Inverse folding.
């Protein structure tokens, strides 16, 4: 009887391993579908757009930001100071915050003065899941065919971003 009990105790860990499946972790959706997502986005004036409303045949920078994030604010200021480096790029700034909070950010940075910047709100937070974001800001560069070139998450220097823009 002792031998049978000892055999069962020794075999138990192996039986547990037999039930375990080694499934690889899935990639973030933006790595599986390397195109700009088609979520509805609310502009500061209340109009709703999708990726179909973006200009075609021009590189696009998708900039996911938080209206409360200091790194996002610094990067916004740095980009605005260096807008000449983005003159051939459309910038789509998206926040998961409500449109009224986005509007304050929009007005504060005078985004309406920059014709190549589109600022929008996506308060359902689907954009966060699509990019599997954990930190702000998120920067995703798409080529003129709107195919993903490079993604960055968290604090990013402008110098890291520029080689992928043009």
């Amino acid at each position: 009887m002792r031998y049978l009990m000892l055999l069962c105790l020794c075999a138990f860990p192996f039986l547990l391993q037999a039930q375990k499946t080694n499934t690889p972790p899935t990639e973030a959706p933006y790595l599986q579908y390397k195109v700009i997502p088609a979520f509805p986005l609310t502009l500061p004036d209340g109009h709703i757009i999708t990726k179909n409303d973006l200009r075609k045949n021009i590189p696009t920078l998708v900039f996911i930001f938080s209206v409360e994030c200091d790194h996002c604010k610094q990067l916004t200021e740095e980009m605005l100071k260096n807008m000449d480096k983005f003159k051939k790029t459309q910038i789509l700034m998206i926040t998961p915050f409500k449109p009224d909070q986005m509007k304050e950010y929009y007005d504060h940075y005078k985004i309406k003065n920059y014709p190549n910047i589109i600022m929008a709100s996506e308060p359902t937070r689907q954009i966060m899941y699509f990019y599997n974001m954990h930190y702000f800001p998120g920067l995703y560069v798409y080529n003129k065919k709107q195919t993903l070139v490079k993604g960055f998450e968290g604090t990013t220097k402008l110098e890291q971003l520029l080689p992928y823009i043009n």
Notes: The radius of gyration is 22 Å. Residues 13 and 19 are 10 Å apart (CA to CA). The mean pLDDT is 89. Helices lie at 2-19, 29-32, 70-81, 99-108, 126-130, 158-165.
